[in-house]
Amino acid sequence: MSESTKLIKQKIINIEDSSKNSIHRRYKGAGAQPSYFYGAADVDSGLRLDFDHSAPAPHLNSNSVEEQSDFSYRQWLTPKQRRLEHFANRVQDCKFMDWAHLVCNDCGNIVKEKAFHLSCLSPFCKNPECIKNRIRINKALLQSYGIYTKRLYHFVVGFEPVKELTNSFRLKCDLLAKKFIKQIRSKFPNVYLIMVRDINQTTKGLRVHYHIGGFGIKDFRFFSVQLQNITKSLSECSRTPLIVSLGGYSKREGIFNYFSKRASGVFGHTSKGDDFYYSDFMKLKEYFEVFYNKRKIWFYLNNLRVRRTELIRLISHSVEKCPYCSSKSFRFSPVNTFKPPPDKFCSECGIYVDARDWNYSLGCCRACAYHKSPGYKDKIFQREFKKFLEGKRGPLNSHEQII
Known about the structure:
Helices cover 37% and strands 18% of the residues. With 403 residues, the chain is of the alpha+beta class.
């Protein structure tokens, strides 16, 4: 066996046990996470937010022996092995990412005072700040569809427990769940459905099941009977036992909170203290083979379409525009390296003012902008008119003379 082959195998073993290894690379600022947005294709594919945040590649002209040896090793890896190594490093380095401010691209002011922790956004990661970001993003995605019904009909379709989750078993479960939804929609075309994958730990093994929330159901009793019939026929055709349980109607916010946690890789019940994550029942390489970049939430909402949403706005509680210049373009800036924009000179009053006190639409400070506003002029007119009624001034000839 050649030395290069030995080196590759040893590197892959280290990646599998990445949680026990030391950190090989540490992120330096927001430059380590250059991509903050996802498009409509990512939303339609089920919020595939565990994309690769490209880290700096090895420098070819570097004098470091370690970097040169690392590059010589990487050139022998297959594309799949490179993605696995990059994914392992990204999850490892998540807790070392910087805190950053949400900054407007046009005026350079901080949009929200509270800083945010940049994270890898992988469902395999157990970093608390990363979990908060993932749940916030998934919940914002659910809310962005504009579902205003107060209650959703909640039911679950599941499979028998297995000792180990494999990619073939995951594909089989996803396929049967989609067939289950397809038969429901063939009988109830006006019903809107949202489905999310969930995993339970039982004494017999891991049980994969799917939570489904629906609305637009006119007769829930007839709908429940049809669910039982569809489950029975699909179990006989696929020769795979399916189990359906009906939860009844639940509040929309409760369903959204539950679904956002499951899509973020948080299983179990936090209130009961039995919550767990992907890393608790599978290794990183197993997750990479089975769940990495795979859909975790499905939307069957007919003609409802989510608007193209920026990831930055989802993390920052759906900030729509800058409060200073009304811009809709933002970026993350590390807290330690952030520099506020320079002061602005107002030609109206001849003084320098802070950039946050500048009116970008009129090109002057806020005080001068207020003096030009109709509300200020009306206030002056009311004051002078009161003086006229009290006999403290002469008659009012015109509004312009008062101002």
